[in-house]
Amino acid sequence: MNEKLIVALDVPDRIQALEVVEELKDTVNFFKVGMELFYREGPRLIDDLKNLGLKVFLDLKLHDIPNTVSRALKNLINLGIDMVNVHALGGQEMLRAAYRVKNEALKKNCKVPIILGVTVLTSMNQKALEQIGLKIELSHLVSLLAKEAKDAGLDGVVASALEASFIKKLCGQDFITVTPGIRRLEDGNFDQKRVVTPKRALELGADYLVVGRPIVAAMNRKIAAKKYLEEMAGGLNGHL
Ligand SMILES: O=c1ccn([C@@H]2O[C@H](COP(=O)(O)O)[C@@H](O)[C@H]2O)c(=O)[nH]1
To answer: Which residue ranges does the record assign to the Orotidine 5'-phosphate decarboxylase domain (predicted)?
Structure first.
């Protein structure tokens, strides 16, 4: 099974989430649980997914002072998840605190997730940065934040696939890039601004492609997921 596709379970509750999983679990084995679902259902949903043998990216984008992030992350790591994230904008001290939690868990032989730093949300463009007073080129900000995450010892970042190749150049080929804002040409962008097709994302070096609405809101989710996987297979073949 292609483990590079992560489907975002952006649905209101556990029943709907498990329906989506049931429909897709022969096609996809990596699912993302975000704030909407986790804030309602909590750890028991993670247990449900893990009991089905699935991989879980818990996308809560922790952003707080180092002490709080550190304590929260400890609890999340204990859930047995495979991937989790913190906001790289939280600063070096906070990112290092996250790294220390992972290291402590490793020393205790606990299962540890991939820890990512979120750079600039894919729903933002240059204009959105200007609106909040940030007079910096968006791609430069992504580079700075990726470097911060790398220096702190994190495993990778969340960014647009548009930025994957220069992140790899800057931080190394094994520095993981997880990329939302993935769209087939036929699908709507909704609120996403930095959008890339699945084939192009892989060509640019993205390690994982996150897709939500185009699959989860489709009439036939399995067919929709297969279309993404087919384009990804085309991208990989073209790349090799
Ligand atoms: O920069 C980011 C970080 C996280 N996301 C999350 O990914 C999915 C994308 O869903 P689509 O429906 O495919 O747009 C969603 O859960 C976001 O919370 C992101 O889009 N951008």
So the answer is: 4-228
Handedness of CA 152, 153, 158, 160 (dihedral sign): positive
Catalytic residue among 25, 50, 55, 64: 64
Q: Give, using CA atoms, the residue closest to atom 18 of ligand 1.
A: 34
pTM of the model: 0.97
Amino acid identity of residue 215, one-letter, is: I
**Amino acid at position 113, single letter:** P
Atom of ligand 1 at shortest range from CA of 192: 14
| Res 235: pLDDT | 61
82 catalytic? Reply is: no
CA gap 13, 36 in Å, rounded: 8
122 among annotated binding-site residues: yes
What CATH code is assigned to 5-239? 3.20.20.70
pLDDT at 238: 42
Ligand 1 atom at minimum distance from 191 CA: 14
pLDDT tens digits along 181-196: 999 999 999 999 999 9
* Domain assignments of the chain as residue spans, ordered by start: 5-239
| 169 neighbors 144 (Cβ within 8 angstroms) | no
pLDDT digits 0-9 by tens, 156-176: 999 999 999 999 999 999 999
Q: Ligand 1, from 7, 35, 122: best to mutate by most atoms within 8 Å of Cβ?
A: 122
Nearest CA to ligand 1 atom 2: 121
